[in-house]
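Hello forum,

I keep getting stuck at the same step: I have a sequence, I want structure tokens, and every attempt I make locally crashes halfway through. Rather than fight my setup again tonight, could one of you with a working pipeline run this one for me? It's a single chain of 352 residues.
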Amino acid sequence: MDSNGDSERPVRRTPSAGWLDRLRGRPVASARPRREPPAHVAVVTDSAAAVPPEWAAAHADRLRVVPMPVMIDGQIYTEGLDDVETELALALAMGKTVQTSRPAPGLFARSYRELAEAGATHIVSIHISGRLSGTVDAARLAGADGPVPVTVIDTQTVALAQGFAVMDAVAAAEAGAGPEEVAGAAAHAADHLICFAVPSLEQLRRGGRITTAASMIGTLLAVKPILGIADGQVVVKDKVRTLPKALARLVDLARSAAADRHDGARMAVQYFGNRAQALELVHELAGSAHGDVWCVSLPAVLAAHTGAGVLAVAVDAPSRPRTPEHTGPSPAVQGDETTGSGPSEPSDTDRS
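Reply #2:
Ran it on my machine without issues. Output:
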């Protein structure tokens, strides 16, 4: 008792809901499972993808572009840092020795680390055909010791056929897709059309990207082959007699590929040193595209093998559903800039 004579009342504890449920014979609700944080997937590619620099900059939180070195008379040039286009154009005109190299694994490791530090929980690394370059091997070496899991994809293609796959992967990542979905968005890169015409096959022959026998088609028979990529390597798709006929054939191939897409196709024209001709192709293809036909300079790492005066067309694969609309500037009519970021560390010479 306290001082006023009242008896102290006992404190009644309220049984927990779990205790009451057990007393009444009701099943106890299981604890709510912990949800894993959403995946933050980032994408890495190489400069052979020809992703326009404005587009890459607009998506820099999810995308890194590793530059591929170009060597002119033994001197190394890096896209994005050096005026490699001017140097390459002069070298090609003067017949200087031009070579390319895969990026060193350390460059990929740096990109993977930067993206992981920025919050990436998985990285999808999307690269030029392994039959044209050792770049995909360098990415695998770096990814094996990456700070987060790295999925490396050999696109078995090049230029904006590869670049469209990169853009699709970035769009999927920005929409919150997981690693498998992001990788899947790039898995059909080889189905995208990429075909091109060059004034001479000599640079492709020197670089080992086309056989001596194939190069003689244009030299001895005075024809202009239409080239493409099949099974990851350069092949002859057609042969015509003159450059105007070659350009007309490029238009026909692009329109035919676009016609297989019921929702319209993304299309791009690529070039090196001949923008006026490229814009003529853009005009011819304008009515066949979904949106603007992009006009994008070929990266120096590819122009080193095709030579000046190349014209290429890239078209969406007909069988693929379109990914969410991409944000950022559209290079419908773009200058001569090429994509690239960061310093370059040359390594082994690209394999044929």
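The longest helix spans residues 243-259. If your local run keeps crashing, start a new thread with the error log.
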